[in-house]
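Input (structure):
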């Protein structure tokens, strides 16, 4: 393969998505992603739209790539996350997921069922406490 053909092939590969990392693909559209975040679009919605466009990322991978890209833009070297940061990121991811609305009907049903079960448990706990208090009042 001659140098010109190789150069052309490499440029084609750089423009496409095949064989490129998720972070590299995200870097191509980072301005649009940052604009969506600044406008208040939830990360779950951004991830859903990226997936529809063919860029499948977990929330953790997205956050990590976003952090690295932002640090690259600032001119600082990204720090590899230590165990504490990984745990924090996991807790934040769970928190973000809890705040985000369910995406699919199955998720909505599941969320509604969990909410109903939690309310039922809360009601049973309150009834047990009331019954306990009533027994204590009768003893007096």
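Output (sequence):
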């Amino acid at each position: 393969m001659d140098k010109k053909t190789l150069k052309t092939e490499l440029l084609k590969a750089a423009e496409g998505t095949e064989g490129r990392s998720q972070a590299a693909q995200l870097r191509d559209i980072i301005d649009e992603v940052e604009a969506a975040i600044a406008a208040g679009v939830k990360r779950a919605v951004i991830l859903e739209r990226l997936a529809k466009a063919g860029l499948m990322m977990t929330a953790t991978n997205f956050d990590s790539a976003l952090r690295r890209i932002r640090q690259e833009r600032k001119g600082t070297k990204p720090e590899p996350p230590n165990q504490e940061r990984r745990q924090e990121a996991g807790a934040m991811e769970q928190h973000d997921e809890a705040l985000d609305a369910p995406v699919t009907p199955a998720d909505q049903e599941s969320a509604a069922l969990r909410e109903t079960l939690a309310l039922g448990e809360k009601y049973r706990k309150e009834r047990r406490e009331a019954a306990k208090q009533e027994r204590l009042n009768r003893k007096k």
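Notes: The CA atoms of residues 53 and 90 lie 25 Å apart. The chain has seven helices and no strands.
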